């Protein structure tokens, strides 16, 4: 049965029938949040789904619900809007748990970056700034798998969605007023198009991988791909299988032996994964895969040019009253610099609305000879 607090009805949903009825009652706009645990597993474990629709809050228990089809259908419907704050972890959880990617998502954290200078403003701060309401965030790291949840946890869960639709309405209007709605939409389409990382590409994240020659890099790729697949299969964190630095060391050895494994790894790890590691290492050698070297660190001159580009982008963002990270994030600007060095053109990131804002200035800087 629902109970009332400030004209808000709160429902605890823990049966398939209740789930189906709840989804049927939702309007075309909902607020959505998730709580999860991710300490000893590769994938996040869902602890709670929170949905706000109109004056009703639905707390959905993923530990007992079995038929998720009504929720999946709703989330995948492009005609329904899902308002989420900082959506990346929620999208990852939903993909891992429900194997779907929600359609038509509005991220309030991202939207706020287009109308203020704060790029990663927390939900609590966003609510305080826009509605003057202070939230208690003490339950952020509590155990969401325990049952029953405490009263404090339930109040926290409700607070995480109860204000989201009002925030969305305010931000949507402000984006239109400032004529930045299409800018936000362009980036939101990319942000909400979640794709599970490909196991064969993890090697690019290993520190100092750029130091390896193409043959060694190919070996690192196979080792990382093996580790990625076994971590997912066993649902264990990567470093609970084999650390990145160990795979990096093994990639530099022309022929990996059990003696080398014993030098770096605990006996239990060698016993469990030794033969698999030897096989993965040998697989790279057998097919003679050769990968292109990864980008080396920028030279001092290139680093100086990167700084000039970022300074121009920051100045442009601040002049518009928006978060500098939208135009001047180091990863994006460096990628643009490297792309220009290879092709003589701006990267895709700076061909959209960003190109309209800083494209001409970027080209003037990039086309200046060193």
The largest sheet has its strands arranged as: 1-2-5-4-3-6-7
Taken in chain order, the helices and strands follow as EEHEEEHEHEHHHHHHHHHHHHH
Beta-strand portion reads 5-15%
Structural class from helices and strands? alpha/beta
Number of domains: 3
Query: Overall mean pLDDT score?
Result: 94
Helix content: 40-55%
> Under the CATH scheme, which architecture of the largest domain would be assigned?
2-Layer Sandwich
Largest sheet: 7 strands, mixed
Q: How is the quaternary structure best described?
A: single chain
Please give the number of β-strands. 7
Number of helices: 16
Q: What overall geometry do the principal axes of the alpha carbons give?
A: flat
CATH superfamily of the largest domain: Ribonuclease H-like superfamily/Ribonuclease H
CATH topology title of the largest domain: Nucleotidyltransferase, domain 5
What is the CA-CA span between the terminal residues?
71 Å
The low-confidence parts are none
Structure commentary:
The structure is a single chain. With 370 residues, the protein is an alpha/beta fold. It folds into three domains: 3-191, Nucleotidyltransferase, domain 5 (2-Layer Sandwich); 199-287, HRDC domain (DNA polymerase, domain 1), CATH 1.10.150; 300-366, DNA polymerase, domain 1. It has helices at residues 16-25, 69-76, 88-98, 108-113, 123-131, 151-162, 164-177, 181-191, 214-234, 244-251, 258-264, 267-287, 300-319, 325-328, 330-343, 353-366; strands at residues 3-5, 8-13, 29-37, 45-53, 56-60, 81-84, 105-107. Strands 1-2-5-4-3-6-7 form a seven-stranded mixed β-sheet, with helices on both faces. Helix 9 packs across helix 12 (267-287), helix 13 packs across helix 15 and helix 13 runs antiparallel to helix 16. The chain is flat.
